[in-house]
Write a structure and sequence with these properties.
The protein is α+β, with helices and mostly antiparallel strands. It has a domain of 114 residues: Jelly Rolls (Sandwich). It is built from 9 helices and 8 strands. Strands 1-8-3-6 form a 4-stranded antiparallel β-sheet. A 4-stranded antiparallel β-sheet has the order 2-7-4-5. A hairpin with a 5-residue loop joins strand 4 and strand 5. The chain is globular, with a radius of gyration of 17 Å.
């Protein structure tokens, strides 16, 4: 799905507004391994991930990377706390595949919010959706077994096991690679 179809699937924008909104985004093609933002940096852009896979992670006190979020095709990609507050991010966002993205700066996005009521409404709906996903993720970590977290991940990211390294998936689930292998052998 392209950016215009995605936006219109949430809020039907008039054609003249859609043209201006679409043109406020710049198209970027970036390679696997590229970091959109590193921990300690301010996230200055919001991205729509047209195709590809990315993750947000942090390094624990033992130097191990812990994946906290995956971003896949047809989704917005942002270090939410950093982008919306314009503060340094505690997470690094890295591309796990070559990605086709559409980017918009913090300033341009807020100009669109100020200019178009429907765009502001779109932003509210997207933030509500992201917050709901964050609550679901937190509940999974706190209350689900490893098997239930794996099943939840597959429901949320159906093709993730074919696209992300197993170590990255294990860190996202909060389990070892050995435990992940045992869970996968049961499916």
């Amino acid at each position: 799905m392209n950016l215009q179809h995605f936006l219109n699937s949430i809020i039907p924008f008039p054609a003249d507004q859609m043209h201006i909104i679409r043109n406020a985004f710049t198209k970027e093609t970036l390679p696997k391994g590229h970091r959109l933002v590193s921990g300690g940096e301010i996230c200055k852009k919001l991205y729509y991930l047209e195709t590809g896979l990315a993750r947000s992670y942090y390094s624990n006190d033992k130097g191990k990377d812990i994946t906290v979020w995956f971003f896949n095709d047809d989704n917005f990609l942002v270090g939410m706390e950093s982008f919306f507050n314009q503060t340094p991010s505690i997470y690094t966002t890295e591309l796990l595949e070559d990605c086709h993205l559409h980017a918009i700066s913090y300033e341009k996005l807020h100009d669109l919010f100020d200019q178009y009521h429907l765009m502001e409404r779109f932003g509210r709906l997207m933030i509500t959706q992201i917050m709901g996903a964050m609550v679901d993720r937190l509940a999974a970590i706190q209350f689900q077994t490893a098997q239930e977290r794996y099943d939840f991940m597959l429901k949320t990211y159906p093709k993730i096991v074919y696209r992300a390294p197993l170590g990255t998936i294990a860190s996202y689930l909060g389990i070892t690679q050995e435990t992940l292998s045992r869970i996968r052998s049961k499916h």
